[in-house]
């Protein structure tokens, strides 16, 4: 259940999924006429059926704050369990809202309205089984598309000669320091902090990736992971994510300050 699952955090794509869901619900109800839909005349169909589509779309949007909260709680990771949790919340909220819509709007609290058990078994659950595949397919497709775009944005830190390099997302890179004839790279793999050695020169990486900041003759950092300054006895240190501490020499002090100030304001 902790296996990664394709996910797109961009709101605009989830707005598209909601709109497609509304259209699908209307078209499905209009042409298949399940249960008592065939009792509506044409004008009633154009009133109530778009309303069901709108409700389905609105329900999806209502559940997006929960999705965003879960995404942040998982440290910007999305798992199969995360997707199942979202689907469960959407289903529960959907059953409650659609039941109330049926009782209040469709039946006006008529005493002969369907009982909850019959309504759930014969209408609401079959409706969910019709709607959920569209949601899952749309979310999976946008998730894969988002992953492909991210993969295209990866950088590669190459080793000299035949030595193996490292390919990763730019913002997964935290810092690099020199270690004899190697560079030691600190980076994130999912939510796990890792480090690896590659035979290369720090100056070569610094020249290849100007987005990084040189803080010391032996250290460069990704400003994305900067958290705070620490000064003690005239010595300056940067604290990065995962409590990684990087020294700042006087040679690079003013440049580091100006770059980090502009990046955080």
Describe this structure in words.
- This protein is an alpha+beta fold and 265 residues long.
- It contains 6 helices and 10 strands; from the N terminus they run H-H-H-H-E-E-E-E-E-H-E-E-E-E-E-H.
- Strands 5-4-3-7-6 form a 5-stranded antiparallel sheet. The protein has a 3-stranded antiparallel sheet with strand order 8-9-10. Strands 1-2 form a two-stranded antiparallel sheet.
- Helix 1 packs antiparallel against helix 2 (42-73) and helix 2 (42-73) packs antiparallel against helix 3 (80-106).
- The longest helix is centred in the middle third of the chain and has 37 residues, at 116-152.
- The chain is elongated, with a radius of gyration of 27 Å.
- The two termini are 39 Å apart.
- The mean pLDDT is 86.
State the helicity in percent bands.
40-55%
Q: Give the helices and strands as they follow along the chain.
A: HHHHEEEEEHEEEEEH
Count the beta strands: 10
| Low-pLDDT residue spans | none
What is the CA-atom radius of gyration, in angstroms? 27 Å
Sheet bearing the most strands, described? 5 strands, antiparallel
User: Beta-strand level of the residues, as a percent range?
Assistant: 15-25%
The end-to-end span amounts to 39 Å
Helix- and strand-based class? alpha+beta
Please tally the helical runs, counting DSSP H or I stretches of 4 or more residues: 6
Name the average pLDDT: 86
Strand order of the largest sheet: 5-4-3-7-6
């Amino acid at each position: 259940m902790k296996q990664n699952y394709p996910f797109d955090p961009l709101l605009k794509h989830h707005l598209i999924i909601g709109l497609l869901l509304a259209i699908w619900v209307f078209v499905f109800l209009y042409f298949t006429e399940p249960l008592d839909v065939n009792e509506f005349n044409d004008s009633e169909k154009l009133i109530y059926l778009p309303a069901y589509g709108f409700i389905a779309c609105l329900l999806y949007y209502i559940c997006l704050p929960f999705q965003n909260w879960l995404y942040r709680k998982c440290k910007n990771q999305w798992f199969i369990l995360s997707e199942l949790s979202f689907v469960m919340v959407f289903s529960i909220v959907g059953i409650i809202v659609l039941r109330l819509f049926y009782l209040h709007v469709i039946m006006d609290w008529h005493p002969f309205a369907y009982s909850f058990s019959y309504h759930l078994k014969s209408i609401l659950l079959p409706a969910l089984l019709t709607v959920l595949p569209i949601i899952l397919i749309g979310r999976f497709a946008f998730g894969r598309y988002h992953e492909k775009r991210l993969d295209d944005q990866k950088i590669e830190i190459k080793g000299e000669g035949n030595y193996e390099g490292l390919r990763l997302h730019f913002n997964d890179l935290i810092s690099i320091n020199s270690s004899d004839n190697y560079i030691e790279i600190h980076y994130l793999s999912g939510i796990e902090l890792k480090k690896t050695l590659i035979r290369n020169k720090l100056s070569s990486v610094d020249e290849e990736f100007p987005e990084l900041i040189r803080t010391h003759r032996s250290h460069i950092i990704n400003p994305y992971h900067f958290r705070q300054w620490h000064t003690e006895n005239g010595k300056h240190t940067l604290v990065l994510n995962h409590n990684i501490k990087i020294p700042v020499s006087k040679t690079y002090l003013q440049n580091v300050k100006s770059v980090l100030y502009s990046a955080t304001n």
